[in-house]
Amino acid sequence: MSCARCGGFLTENWWDFVDEVEQRKLQGTRCVNCGAIDDPVILTNRLRPHRTRTIVPRGLISIGKQVGPGDGGRRYQTGASHGG
Question: C-alpha distances in angstroms, 24 versus 9, 14, 16, 17, 39?
Answer without folding.
Answer: 26, 10, 6, 5, 13
